[in-house]
Amino acid sequence: MIELKIKSIEAYLKRAFGDDARLVGAGSIGNLDEQGMKGFGYGKPLLLQFEVGGEMREAVLSVMKGDKYGHQFYWDRGAILMFQYETSARMERHVHPLGLGYVDGSDSLIPVDEPKEFFILNEKLEGHDYFLDLDRIKSGDFCESDVETAREFARWLARAHSVKLDDSHLYYRRIRNLIGSSECILGLIDEAFPHPYAPFDDNEFMALEKRLIDWRWKLKGYAHRLSVVHGDFHPWNVLVTDNGEFSVLDRSRGEWGEPAGDLATMAINYLLWSLYGHDRMSGPFEKLYRAYVEEYIARTGDTEIFDVMAPFCVFRGLVIASPEWYPDHPESVRRRLFNFVGNVLEDDVFDWENINKYLE
To answer: What percent of the chain is modeled with pLDDT above 70?
Structure first.
């Protein structure tokens, strides 16, 4: 809970409006009784009366209350407040924003001054992109250490996924996002493919979307599976060192989700690389795929994961089949990927040991 003191509000006003800003009163709307501050932090607006340059002003200080409607985290709420700050004054008769800020770990109010874009600064990690190892293997240079790397990926995922959270609404949100988000399945269908698209026409896309509704309702029964996830575990987000250590980049789509998403994402890429030169999962990439999945199951005992994996396979299958993201696929590779996407939802349980049957 946020607990604000008078001195914190006064400090904010000086940082936002200048050193001559002075707080006169604070309380609930219509009442400057300072006891009203006790409710702040639960989404209750706080009326401020303050003076700047000898002029008396009034303003309302608000935070959003977290809820299960896509506002569980402060970054969810921050995005909405940033939208309101940027756009409210452009609408006729809308209240004008006077400031945007955040509350830091010590409950101080920190102003954000005229934001235009945000950035992040990360540490520099050692290693090379894992997709370069897959290219090397594709060219014929396969080592037993490559199998150990795949197993280590699985062990790392197993440790991450062992942390669970009892929050069914958050699980439902992740499944909604998987299907309906602009950067997930429906977004890919709309934006990552031209329409019409001969290799997978609009009727096939519509049938796929309708089938996913059945899967959405099926997955509502699996909310107990909510776990810590990475969210985007693919070969471009993994750095591998020469001694076999690895690091991961670009965690996406939230801290909590369905473990099947992480497991499927890397697995589908083993399929992709195998399809270059073969019409199926085979050879060294099949060895990597089997080592990766077998190690994960050995570490977690989670065979239930295959009950829920198919929609995540569709998402990642659409990514790697997209002509926008992967314009250079041979026609035979893209055709197999579309077969996979079109077939994988038909089994109630993903048959990971016989993945090639989905390619026909």
So the answer is: 96
Spatial separation of the C-alpha atoms in residues 119 and 176, rounded to whole Å: 27
d(CA 261, CA 175): 10
> In whole angstroms, what is the distance from residue 65 CA to residue 344 CA?
40
Position 41 pLDDT exceeds 60: no
Which CATH code is given to the segment(s) 128-359?
A: 3.90.1200.10
CA distance 196 to 185: 17
Rounded Cα–Cα distance for residues 56 and 28 (Å):
18
**By three-state DSSP, how is residue 56 classified?**
strand
Three-class secondary structure of residue 176 per DSSP: helix
Q: Which tokens is 184 given?
A: 């997930």
Residue pair 285/273 in contact (Cβ under 8 Å)? The answer is yes
The SS3 assignment for 112 reads: strand
- What whole-number distance in Å separates Cα of residue 240 and Cα of residue 123? 16
Mean pLDDT of the chain: 93
Q: Select the more confidently predicted residue: 26 or 193.
A: 193
Name beta bridge partners: 201.
none
Which are the contacts of 139, defined by CB distance < 8 A and separation ≥ 6? none
Query: Terminus-to-terminus CA distance in the chain, angstroms?
Result: 55
Phi, psi values for residue 46, rounded to 5°: -125, 125
Does residue 39 register a pLDDT over 60?
no
H/E element, 354: none
